[in-house]
Amino acid sequence: MASSKKILIIDDDNRNIFALTAVLKAKGYQCLSALFAEEGLQLISEHPEIAVVLMDMMMPGMDGYEAIARMKSSPELKDIPVIAVTAQAMVGDKERCINAGAIGYISKPVNVDNLVKLISQYI
User: Fold this and answer.
1) H/E element holding 105?
2) Are 78 and 71 in contact (CB under 8 A)?
């Protein structure tokens, strides 16, 4: 069973947040969510119990790449693992996400088993 640590889902599509939250709660995880990267970074600052961030890479305003860069440049946030969850599934996209600082990459539609396996390495 999952611990009291929380997962933060940052995605500009409410349907993705709803679906991910539903499957992760069914697996025993607690979830927080944000529709914008700026809001997500604020939540991370307010909730030190966040253990993993699931980051959509394509969002209006600040995208996932910039959000990860900001996290990595912050002493308080740099050690929080980020899993890129993105519709970008072309050759090179996974490498681009990992090079940006993500510890894992899941393409949409999300394979829940693969996602839970990645999360369980950090919670």
Assistant:
1) strand 104-107
2) yes
pTM of the entire predicted model: 0.95
Separation between Cα atoms, residue 93 and residue 46, nearest integer Å: 31
- CA dist., res. 63 & res. 55, Å (int): 9
* Rounded-to-integer distance, Cα 23 and Cα 112, Å: 8
Q: How far apart are CA 32 and CA 21, in angstroms?
A: 8
pLDDT tens digits, 17-47: 999 999 999 999 999 999 999 999 999 999 9
8 forms beta bridges with 32, 53
CB 30 within 8 A of CB 4: yes
Burial of 4 (0-12, 13-18, 19+ CB in 10 A): exposed
Residue found under tokens 């693992």: 81
Strand order in the sheet with 104-107: 30-34, 6-10, 50-55, 82-86, 104-107
Q: pLDDT of 63-109, one tens digit each?
A: 999 999 999 999 999 999 999 999 887 889 999 999 999 999 999 99
